Structures are given as structure tokens and as C-alpha cells.
Amino acid sequence: MESLWPQIEPLLAQVTKPARYIGGELGAQQVEHGPDTVSWLLVYPDSYEVGLPNQGLQILYELLNERHDAAAERSYAPWVDMEAAMRTAGIPLFSVEGHLPAAGFDVLAFNLSAELVYTNVLNLIDLAGLPVRAADRTGDDTIVMAGGHCTFNPEPLADYVDAFVLGDGEEVVGEINDVLAAHRCGPGCAPGDDPTRAAGDGQDRRTALLRDLSRVPGVYVPSCYDVAYDDDGRLAGVTPRYDDTPARVEKRTIADLGSWPYPRQQLVPLIEVVHDRLNVELFRGCTRGCRFCQAGMITRPVRERPADQVRTMVSAGLERTGYDEVALTSLSSADYSGIEETVGGIIDDPSCSGQVSVSLPSLRVDAFTVGTAAQIQRVRRTGLTFAPEGGTWRMRQVINKLIREEDLYAAVDAAFSQGWKRVKLYFLIGLPTETDEDTLGIVDLAKQCVAIGKRYHNSVSVTASVGGFVPKVQTPFQWFGQNTIEELTRKVHLLRDAARPVRGLTIRWHDPKATAAEGIVSRGDRRMGAVIEHVWRHGGTFQEWSEYFDLDLWTDALEAQGMTLEDAVYRHRTEHEVLPWDHISAGLHRDFLWQDWKDALAEHGLPDCRWTPCYDCGACTGYGIEHVVASAVPPAGGSQGTGQDLSSGGQVPVRFLSTAPSGAAPADRPAGGAPAMAGEGRS
Amino acid sequence: MRIRFRFSKLGKIRFTSQRDVARMWERALRRARMPLAYTEGFSPRPQLSFGLALPTGAESLAEYVDVALDPVRAEEMGLDLATLPATLNGLLPEGLEIEEAVPVERSKDSLQQMVTSCSWTMRLAGPTRDELSSSVDALLAAPSVIITRERKGREELDDLRPSVLALAVADATADLAEDPTGRTVGLVAELSTQPRGVRPVELLRGLIAVSAVAAHGTIDGPADSGRPGSTPVLDRACRTQQWIERDGLRTEPLLGRVVPVGTDRAQHALERAS
Question: How far apart are CA B188 and CA B272, in angstroms?
Fold first, then answer.
């Protein structure tokens, strides 16, 4: 592979933000490609600024480059102006480190974090110079893979991606590399042998490689499955073509986050990106059980990072990067069992000299959390964000976001009384069973929050940010028919009109048309690929960006394939209907999800299973793993309206497991791990 | 106390913006555990003051930044100015390199206010050396050169001529990386920064304007009326010096080298470039 830099450089004077394409980040690795290494191009299919901070991609980048038989570089979707310049000049997609052509890599591995980037995926495969459809790729063409949350319904991209990877990537990426390394020079040959001597013609080799990949647990190879439809055109099943292909592909789950202190060398970009700060992952998984939340459902169980490892990663990371802000990330960071001590330890670290701010991207809604927030935001105090999600208690029971009004008001009171003047509230509209009373409850809640603020400040600002709900696969709401564009628009207008007379209250909303497009892709079967391809072929890239989003492209594409919004998006799925993702497993039993769906309709809440008996959702029992918590003490104030009394944390039955002392070195990574206090979540 | 650094910005990193460079400096200074002085208020920032913004895409041999330090902590840690450039160079990204650091008085005016002109070396693609020479002569001979400039998002007409203090076709190889195509022509210029700075692309617009005038006797004629390829395109630009002119003396902001002001600006520019 030869660097394309001499051809790329002249284009950069003509495009916006040319530094997106130069690499050079702190932490970027100059790797060597050779006959003994599998070359990976890790691609985030959105702009550089959105893609660079992605932690999943950075973790895989490091893990692969630690191996002697792998070499990984990165790429991002070139912005529209750059893509046009590249296509005019005949320059293919390239890596940002070596500026090497994408098609020269063994693997093109996409991160799929959002459905609306799918058209970009097709565009990037095409820009790489590869056939867009997997079936048209032959011989030694680059293998196209994809991982990330969206792979829990891989079917819409199944005709374009050779292999999907489900769940945590830390372990499986190495297993995949082993398969690819073995195939680089054909079966039976030693590393270093001439790859061209491999046995069989190209197509045979490709088929054999994909068959071998399909035997790696957690890897789904669509070409190893047959899809059948019934007489009504409904999906009848996706079934394996071979005896040794799993009928149901299970996700991968790392048992202990403490064994994986990554990224060790977080990338520090030269230009400003989103989440431009040090990010340290506190824990993975969430057992709050919010029924709309796909991330919470598919990442179970909870695996907390040991508190001392968090502190080490923060102090070493700040020193290495020069950042003055660290985000402690997870799906609900205030639920981390050592949160107070951890935050206090960072703030009081003398090397931070009082100038480091800590952010918890997802605050729990209670006064206790605000206390923690006040402690950590004493350096830079901007606004506080809470996510009640539903406007009434009834609605919040349906979605299992069990926040009482008192909890919210106490949190907001604490925030205003401690100096904050801006509070942002997140809500969803278009939820199952939602009535106009529920919708308007959003304004009632927000209005109360403004009134509370007025007790402390003359001028306060409360923003209610309202998103349209898209039912996601592998959740209890996967059967729910999404609200129509018209219905969501009507609800937005209801909210806007009700909020207008309230001074200090602002309503912001997500475009209902974009919500509909997301719905088209989210639950589609394999035939939805043609719709995505149609949108892409008609110029529909960067559909996550409002300036490029165009619903007409999507409705035209549906029509061209004989599909409708009504059937694809708005229709309720039935209990015994074959779902396009039934052969893909996030560990959750289908009957658990169905029961949770019925509980939702009956307005029954379900407490956090970390501190209550197991509901047997399947995530722990199925994989023989369990919750790992860093402290035996449940979080203070953690009841969140569930009625659970957690004031005496020691009484919660938690068992301490002794684990091996920290190995820290990558070589003994899987066995090692910091001395975690692993608690049994009674799974 | 304040420390003024002179540094260069060369290579791929030239595609980053002035704001990006400011953030790179902040991170490098924190990594070096410099005793930075912070601004007051809810959102304290380190007090860094850069001179005139370098256009994104341009290289520079003469960038400056003033860094405010907490004098007490600086004293405590025994800050050594002699080793500081090397320390920071190990922490700044590739392409940013500090040449020298000196303490400056806090009362001094900001770099932005003090600098009066900048020297540039450019490389233009399109015209031959002779064509570019005649454009340069035409520009220098013109009483005024009206170009469109963008100001606060709006286009307006402005006379470029008073800002062009010196201009000459020259060999650019001393300041710029080698041109792989070998088809570019070098140009050196000194451009005034007051009341506002002239960018290399704006100088280029001026050169195109005078060529059009020469060909048609009017500025309204098509700019590219000659043979194809003769319209100059800016290939590379490098700021080689920033100057402070006061009371007939011209000094460089950090090293304090004094250069007499006279009629030999072009000559000086040529010396810089050769």
C-alpha cells in the first residue's frame, strides 16, 4: 500500500476543516503492515468530529495494535465537500494515519452507533472502491465487518456487510484476528508464507474464511443464513445453511471490566471534536430497566470498574493528555457504587491543582446526585440535565423510569439553591399508551421547575428537550407501533402552545420526520437494505445531519420497494410474529421481554435488579456471569422512587469474590484484573 | 509574569486553525505542569494571548504566544526558561516547534496591537515567472487595487494597495518545502497588519485584479482571459516574520532584532527568502 498523501494534500486547501484528514492525534499509531499482520481499517461512518471520540473504536484500535499479528488504522466519513473533491480526483477512502487506500486493508470494520448512518456505510464501502453488496465482493476483496449497538438488528445491512460482531469487542476482536491471520496465507501454512500461494481460487478462499468467522462466538455472517418469507410476504425465518452455523448468535460479554483498562492512550485530536475531554468508563451495563432504552437492555449485566482503577486511569489520563476535564462515563454514572469517593478523590488530587472539572454525563434524578454534581462542578458550573423521560407518574411506570415528582423537584430545588440557573430536562413523546394528559404533563413538570427556580433567582431557564420515541429491537417496546409523523407533530404543537405563556421555559424538539426515518431502519428485515441503498444512490448521505436529512428520499425509497411507513414503522408487531432479529441474542429471553411489555401496558414498574431478586431476563444466567460492583454498599439515595429502602446498604446480600491481583500488563489481561470487589447480584 | 514564545507551524499541522493551536498549547502547558495564571469567573481559562491569527492552511516560522504565569508558583518550582522550549517541544504535536522563550513585562501591549506588518513567502501555481513579474510590477505601480474582502460575513470592497509594503518574485525554497511539481513560482511580500491584516489569498486577488486591468483596461473584464492556467493559485504560504514598527525602527517581537525602516523592504524580503 502506498500513501495517497501527495494526491490528498492539494485538495485540503479547498475543503472545510481540512485537519479532519491529516491524522497526527496524540495516541495515533504509526503501524507497519506486512505479510504477517492482518490490517484493519476501523471506520466510524460519520464526520471526524463525531467519530474520533468513540471509545469503542479507540479500545479496539489499541487492542489490535498491541498484537504482533495485527495493524489497525482509522478512517471517518469525509465531509460532503471532501468526498466530492476525492471522487473528482479519483482518490478512494483512506486512513488518517498513513493515508493508505481503504481497499488495501484486509478488513474494513465499521462502528454502528446509530441507524441513520447506514447510508454513509454504503457510501464509504463504495468510496473505498469495493462493490457495495457483499455478494459482489470476490476473492481477496477487503472483508467488511460491523460492530456496535445497532448490530442487534443486523438485517437491514445484511446484504452489504460480510460479518457482524455482537456485544463487547475486547475478547472477540482477537479471535477474529486469529481467523483472519490463519487465512492470510491459506490453511496449513505458517505465518510469513507467501499469501499468493494459498490454496483454492479466490472465491473459495473467501467463502471458507466467512464460514470460519461464523464459527467464532458472537460473529454473525449473513451469507451463512437463508431467509424465508411466507405467502403474505412476512418474514418466516432466518435459518443457518450449515450444521456448524449457530441458529441463534449470542452476544459477547466481558465478565470483568477491571481486566480491560482501555483506552490506555486515549486519542487527543488536533481539532475540536464532540466530547473533547478525557473519558473514563465507570461501568458497562445498566439494570435500571428503562423499557425504552436499548443500551440498557443489550449491555446487561452491570460490570463496574474497580474504584482504584478508575482513579489511576483518571490521573494517568489527565497527565498524559493535558485535558482539564474528565467525564466518568456509563449509562447512569451516579449509580456507580463508589461514586462519592471516586469523585472526591479526583477533585482533591493535588496534581489537578483545582482546575480539573469532572462531568457525569448521565445524572440520576434526585437531590443526592445534585450534591455530587455541586462538588464536581465547582470549577466550571454550566447547566444541569435530568431525564425524567415521561410527563406523568403513570407514563413513567409504563416506561419503568421510576422517578417520583418529589424526586425531580428535590433535585431541581437542590440545583437552583446551589447556584445553578439553567436546568435541562429530557423527555420522550410517542411512548406506548401515551395520552395528551401524559404529554402535557411535561409542561406541568417543567413549569413547576421554573417556579422552584424563581424562589432562588430572578431569572431562571428551564429547557424541556423532547424527542420522538423510536421502538428499538431487543427491548420490551420492540413490538410497539411507532407514532406517526402527524401524531408526533401534533404533540409537539400541544407542548409548544402550552409552554408559550410560561416565562423561563423553552421547549426544544427533535424533527418528527427524522424520528420516522430512524424507525424505518430500526426494525426492518433484510429487504430494508434495498431502501437504504436507494436512499444512498439518490444522494442521501449524512442523514443524521438536519442540513442533509431528507424524508422524501426515504419515502420514495420505500415506495420503490413496495413498502409503506404504515407497515414498516407504525404497525404494532404481534406476539408470535417472527421478528427480523430473532436469530440475534442480547441474552434476553423473548418471554421476559414479552412479559415486561405486558407489565408496561399494565403500568407495573420493575425495580433495579442489582438490589432485588433476579427476574431471570437471561443476561446473567445465560452467560454464566453476574453483576460486578465496586462496592458492597448500594448508592445513597438510589431508590429512585422504587420504594426500595437502600439506606442500610450492608443488609443487601452481597458476596465479595476474591480475584487475582492486578496484572496490568496486556499479556495476562484476561486472567488478571485489578482486585475488584465483585458482588453477586443474585442472578 | 508573562513569557513570550516564538514558534513555528510547519507541515500537515498547517491545516489546523488558530483556535486549534491555542488548545494544543493549553494542553501542552498543563502536561508540563506550568504554573498557569487563570482568568477569573465561572469558567476559568489559562491566560494565553496569541498574535495575529494565521490563516488555516498557511505555515509560519514566526508565531508568538504570551503565557501568563502565577508568579508565586513559578518561583516555587524554579522555572527554568532555558530548558522550557525543549520540554514543551516534547509535548506539543509534531509540526509546532518553539524556537525561544523570553519573559516580557506584563504592562506591554498585546501582540495583536503591537505588530504592524508581516513578511510572507508564497508559492503560486499557474503563471510563469515572467507573467507573475509583470503582475507584481503592475500592482506596485497601481495607485489603488480594489478587491473584495469578507468582513463579518459580508463582502465589501477595499483598497489593497496601501497594505502592500513590499512585493517581489523570488526563490521560495528557503522557507517552503520543495515543490514536487516544480511548476510554481515564489513570491515574497511584506503586508501591513493595520488597520487590519491582509491575507495571502487577498494579495492573490489583488494580483489577479491588476492582471485583468492590464489586459482589458478595466477591472470588470474576465479575470481569466489569458491562456488557461495563467490565473495564479496559492499553492503554499508561510509567514516568515512579524514586525513591530515604531519611531522609524522595526523590531521582531521576541528577539528584539532591530531592522532599519527604509526603501529596501523588498530587498530585505529577498534576503529573508534567499
Answer: 9
pLDDT-derived band at A181, boundaries 50, 70, 90: very high
| Cα separation, A530 vs A536, whole angstroms | 10
Q: So what's the pLDDT on residue A185?
A: 64
* CA terminus-to-terminus distance, chain A: 50
Question: What is the DSSP track for A183-250?
Answer: HHT-TTPPTTS-GGG-SS-HHHHHHHHHHHHHTSTTEE-GGGEEEEE-TTS-EEEEEESSTTS-SSEE
List the domain boundaries for chain A: 5-224, 253-362+589-596+607-683
Identify the band that residue A353 occupies on the pLDDT scale cut at 50, 70 and 90. Answer: low
Nearest Cα residue in chain B from A8: B12
Q: Which regions of chain B carry the CATH code 3.30.2350?
A: 115-273
Torsion of CA A610, A615, A620, A623, to 10 degrees: 180
A397-436 confidence digits (pLDDT tens): 999 998 889 889 988 998 888 888 899 999 999 999 999 9
State residue B110's pLDDT score.
Answer: 79
Within this chain, domains A5-224 and A253-362+589-596+607-683 share the same CATH topology = no
User: Does the ipTM exceed 0.85?
Assistant: yes
What is the distance between the alpha carbons of residues B237 and B219, in angstroms, rounded to a whole number? 26
- Residue A33 has phi, psi (to 5 degrees) of -100, 135
Tell me the C-alpha distance between A39 and A70, whole Å.
6
Rg value, chain B, Cα: 20
Please state the length of chain A.
Answer: 683
Structure confidence by residue, pLDDT tens digits, A556-580? 999 999 999 999 999 999 999 999 9
* Structural element, H or E, at residue A111: strand A107-111
Tell me, which fold does domain A5-224 have in CATH? Rossmann fold (3.40.50)
B146: DSSP letter: E
Verify whether the Cβ–Cβ distance B27 to A19 is below 8 Å: no
Q: Contacts of residue B12 in chain A, CB cutoff 8 Å?
A: 22-24
What residues does A422 pair with on adjacent strands? A461
Q: Per CATH, is B2-112 categorized as 3.30.70.580?
A: yes
Predicted confidence (pLDDT) at residue A172 exceeds the cutoff of 90: yes
8 Å CB contact between A302 and A628: yes
B27 vs A contacts (CB less than 8 Å): 268, 321-323
The chain B residues in contact with chain A (CB within 8 A) are: 12-13, 15-17, 19-20, 23-24, 26-31, 33, 38, 42-44, 56-57, 91, 93-95, 180, 234
Q: CA of A47 to nearest chain B CA: how many angstroms apart?
A: 16
**Domain formed by A253-362+589-596+607-683, architecture:** 2-Layer Sandwich (3.30)
Residue whose grid cell is 440535565: A385
Q: What is the pLDDT of residues A109-143, one digit of tens each?
A: 999 999 999 999 999 999 999 999 999 999 889 99
Conformation bin of residue A167: beta by default, left when phi > 0, alpha when psi is -120 to 50:
left
Neighboring chain A residues of B43 at a CB cutoff of 8 Å: 380, 382
Fold of B115-273: Pseudouridine synthase (3.30.2350)
- Residue spans in chain B of domains classed CATH 3.30.70.580: 2-112
Q: Are strands A38-44 and A107-111 parallel, antiparallel or unpaired?
A: parallel
Nearest to B27 among A12, A21, A323 (CB): A323
C-alpha dist (Å) from residue B161 to A220, B150, B158, B190, B217: 67, 17, 9, 12, 18
Buried b (16+ CB within 10 A) or exposed e, A426-440: ebbbbbbebeeebbb
pTM, to two decimals: 0.90
Position B270 scores a pLDDT of 41
CA distance B177 to chain A (A): 13
Write the pLDDT tens digit of every residue in B22-39: 999 999 999 999 999 988
All residues of chain B having their beta carbon less than 8 Å from the beta carbon of residue A24 are 12-13, 93-95
